[in-house]
Amino acid sequence: MLRVLILFLIVIAGIVVGPMLAGHQGYVLIQTDNYNVETSVTGLVIMAILLFVVLFFIEWILRRLFRTGARTRGWFVGRKRSKARKQTQRAMIKLAEGDHRQMEKLLARNADHAEQPMVNYLLAAEAASQRGDEIRTNQYLERAAEIADTDQLPVDITRVRIQLAQGEIHAARHGVDRLIALSPRHPEILRLAEQAYMRTGAYGSLMEILPSMAKADIYDDEQLQVVQERAYVGMMDQLMSEEGSEGLKRWWKDQSRKTRHEPALQVAMAIHLIQCNDHDLAQEVILDGLKRQYDERLVALMPKLKSGNPEQLEKFLRQSIKQNGATPLLNSTLGQILLKHGEWLQASDAFREALKQRPDAYDFAWLADALDKQHKPAEAAEMRHQGLMLTINNSQQ
Description:
Elements: H1 2-22, E1 28-31, E2 36-39, H2 41-97, H3 100-108, H4 117-131, H5 134-148, H6 153-165, H7 169-182, H8 187-200, H9 203-215, H10 221-254, H11 257-260, H12 263-275, H13 279-292, H14 296-301, H15 310-324, H16 328-340, H17 344-357, H18 361-373, H19 377-396
């Protein structure tokens, strides 16, 4: 800038000095309503130069003043940012300590000057939610939404998480539906959706997002299987309460073969049918499942059945003992079925075989009942005593 000024002055000096040396300075008249200004060309040029110099000097002074103001303002802003950074670090320590009140205060102070103001407000909202302060929670969320502008996804996710924590499950369900539509494979959205759907009984919606959960690697295969089973059991609960045994039967037939062959679902279906007093269909489900794959959970349900065809159960149990060997569960289950149908001697033999393999207080009690029916009170009393002593010993361990 200074070089340009010097060059400009040299040019002007040439223009002024040239006419002066030549003796021809010219004449300039500036006329207004009240004044007349008369001067030479040289004088006008000199006045213009002086005006330019004055303006340049004023501009230099103003620039220095504004620069000083900017530095001062930058100093204050930098100080606030540094303070906000330290407070955020202290807030993370309070988070680890579980002190949500102090965490909220530290995050909210100078949050606008933090490196990520939106994150500070969102964490402060969760801290306020932990304290049960809904007013401050909403204030922090609104402020975070203002800062986020077009990037509202983190704010919406935090809002749904807080709603679930506060028990506002239907509001959370509404928020989750909207988030799923916006980002169907976002891991945290899928986790929140699982909670919202499970707690609102939206088991069909939960089943729909299971493929996305698998692709997002939220759970391993075993955990995902557990979630799927919970969804199926939830559907069974709803059908049982709304339509009873007929609804369960119709729904079960509509399922794929793969679903109907899942042992855990067969167990759940049999339990629901027994609760609906549909023992014949429950027995059919149990035996069909055991023919394809042996499962102790299905065997354990047999004594609860009150079907008109107990011979099928007894036949299956005896065949299993011959083919796979006697187990305490098989012998005990066989004994309970025989006991229910008045076959006292065979029932007592089955209970004795089970007790040879492992002591069990229930088998001692059932064996005592079978011996009472055979008019053997002394032996029955001895079995009850052994069962009582076993219960006492187990409770003391």
